[in-house]
Specification:
Length: 344
Amino acid sequence: MLAAAAGFLLLGTQAASAHVKWFCAFDVAGQPRGLAEVLCADFELMTGLAILCLMVGCLAEGTSFGTALLNALDRVTARLREDTGLIVRAVVGFFLVSVWNLGGIILTPELKTDAQWISWLQLAMAGCLIWKRTLPLTALGIVFLFGFAVWHYGAFHLADYPVFLGVAAYLALTGLDRTFFGHRPIDVVRATAAVTLMWASVEKWAYPHWTDPLLAAKPAMTMGASPETFMRAAGVIEFTLAFALIWTPLVRRASAIILAAVFVSAIVEFGKVDAIGHSGIIAVLIAIAADDARVAATRRDAVLAPVYYVGALTAFLGVYYVAHNLLYGDLYGAASALATVPVI
């Protein structure tokens, strides 16, 4: 299931997995690639193959083979599942202590600040992770830092990082032993991780040239493909795996494992900055992979997968381009572009 995606990602998308804003020059207000260029024939072929993989995964999940895989995953991840809360707290603590030590960072490496008190707040937040009762204080601190970053860098820039709000919700709900309108803490953070990665995928299509310096320095990563084709494929695969995080149990657990492996492999390539920046989402992906909640997959899931996938793809492309034009350009131009793009 999704084996082709896994192979492609693990062999050659470290550059795409490393957050480009941490390593290369970027301009959020710059003009993105036109939608007509994004939704080309290659893009439609790639998304078609991705949907096919997703449907095959759903169909396999409803068989005895899929059940056996889920049972095997349950056994292998049993210890991780028992310690999920501890793992998330430890990794978030590592992240907060690391950014405190680096100094001048709000939440991620490109979000710089001269306010010295931010670092000490981060250290205090890390300390609050020691006790369950004080987890909501750390959650409140993360929400505050997210809002502080929005104030200084804008909501569009911080749309890259809703997973931080998901982590905050996870910590608060865990500390208070609550659910979010019936949704477990892991479900909330899983949804925000999916949104984060789907949004990042659109950015790969809108600004593929941001990654040019990385690909020029490490040309082997493209596996012989042109940088344009490589970034388009990397975006499609990332979007598909992110979408899979909100789909059926086996599909989402397999996706979490693949994505976690990709992020870990990127650390080997890009070092401690990448390790610090992606530590939180790696912990979340491990928690998703270990989650044994099940709802029996049916053929209906396979049939609906393309509908929801195309709907999510259309929504994210539309929101990204309309929001960008509303904030940085011409809203009428964005609406006109959306009206003229081909239907996938």
